[in-house]
Amino acid sequence: MGQYLPCFKAYDVRGKVPSELNPEIAYAIGRAYGMxxxxxxxxxxxxxxxxxxxxxxxxxxxxxEEGCDVVDLGLIGTEMVYFATAFHGYDGxxxxxxxxxxxxxxxxxxxxxxxxxxxGDSGLYDIEAKAHAVLQGEIVAGPGGGSMSxxxxxxxxxxxxxKICSPSELKNFxxxxxxxxxxxxxxxxxxxPHLPLEVTKMxxxxxxxxxxxxxxxxxxxxxxxVEDEMKANRYDLGIAWDGDYDRCFLLDENxxxxxxxxxxxxxxxxILVDDPGATIIYDPRLTWNTLEIVEESGGKAVMCKxxxxxxxxxxxxxxxxxxxEMSAHHYFRDHWYCDSGMIPMLLVLKLMAKSGKxxxxxxxxxxxxxxxxxxxxxxxxxxxxVLAAVEAKYADGEIDRTDGLSVEFADWRFNLxxxxxxxxxxxxxxxxxxxxxxxxxxxxxxxxxxx
Length: 451
What we know:
By secondary structure, the protein is α/β, with parallel strands linked by helices. The protein has helices at 23-37, 52-65, 78-87, 124-135, 154-164, 184-191, 220-232, 260-274, 288-296, 308-318, 343-355, 359-369, 383-393, 435-450, and strands at residues 13-16, 41-46, 69-75, 92-96, 105-112, 148-150, 174-178, 198-201, 237-241, 248-251, 279-282, 300-303, 322-324, 330-332, 338-339, 376-379, 398-400, 405-408, 412-418, 424-431. It has four domains: 13-152, Alpha-D-Glucose-1,6-Bisphosphate, subunit A, domain 3 (Alpha-D-Glucose-1,6-Bisphosphate, Chain A, domain 3), CATH 3.40.120.10; 173-251, Alpha-D-Glucose-1,6-Bisphosphate, subunit A, domain 3 (Alpha-D-Glucose-1,6-Bisphosphate, Chain A, domain 3), CATH 3.40.120; 260-362, Alpha-D-Glucose-1,6-Bisphosphate, subunit A, domain 3 (Alpha-D-Glucose-1,6-Bisphosphate, Chain A, domain 3, 3-Layer(aba) Sandwich); 376-450, Alpha-D-phosphohexomutase, C-terminal domain (TATA-Binding Protein).
């Protein structure tokens, strides 16, 4: 949590509008970003939230006052700020979004040159300190002189996606696509004319009033309309995005939601077909399926603490072609090591076309072989005490502390980790082909965690 301003978190800015984030604070953040990064050109985009434009305007004023030229990208998705910053060679980028938070929230994701993330340890807390000083009147007026221009980057973005996956590698699949009234509808409208797909649109209109609830398809209630439509009519694939579409979620031909864990294995497989021997980054929460697939496909698997700043850094260090988190964040070297909600959809459709198999057939064996609990959250009084108690009970297993507590036995394993932002502990359990064992161990650990 921020030391001076509560909207500053470990990886980004996020808070209630107007109590924790408002135009005055956005202006101060613009000033602080300019001072901290010395950027001369910054692009800004915002998602469907109704407070986006006013925060963007205030942020622009602050940046301009520090002599920074601002390029307004308008209503877009987070990955388009990453794309525009790197592709057009800007010194930085800011996406105004609160992802899947409730409607009264907004926030900012910041990057510097080449879309390198700005998080707590890489400048975000310094920006917070300077913004606080601006708000306190401790920093006087900046040099001024920055300009503002508008740019539509949809066409460039679409061409970038088509380079990663050529339309000639796809088939005329029937696809159900649901942005959940988030920003992904606009990107799909720009992309669809180039693809041989038959797309049925659902909740396509961008709408910051969230008429169908905040789009967060990881929640069963959020994805239920998509599942119902998939089961009522025949589709080859279902896709749902969160509001700023840096995450995409896939449903198979039966309308079954596929856990993000198996999509990591699938994307690793798809990428290693074209790039044998490449390095794949994965997080410690669920691992066995990914490890087996990467090994079978002749790749190299490297584990990394979860969280976008860690994964991006590790990918650059290892020159990894892909990094995947079970939380549906997928990172690509061809996308400046950033996460994308559009590229996974294209790569899965490409693998379906190439293999002649449905998504259900592609992941069916993985799900049987490595059944998992999915991530289960528990609110606890003391995260450290719970972790210590669980570690003491399972001390005879093989222990790894890359990210929270991972314990491995011959036929099952688990990961338990505290949240960065709240008194919540997250559990993931998997087994080798034994669903009953996985379920029993999940109950056993939850009993310990919830006391």
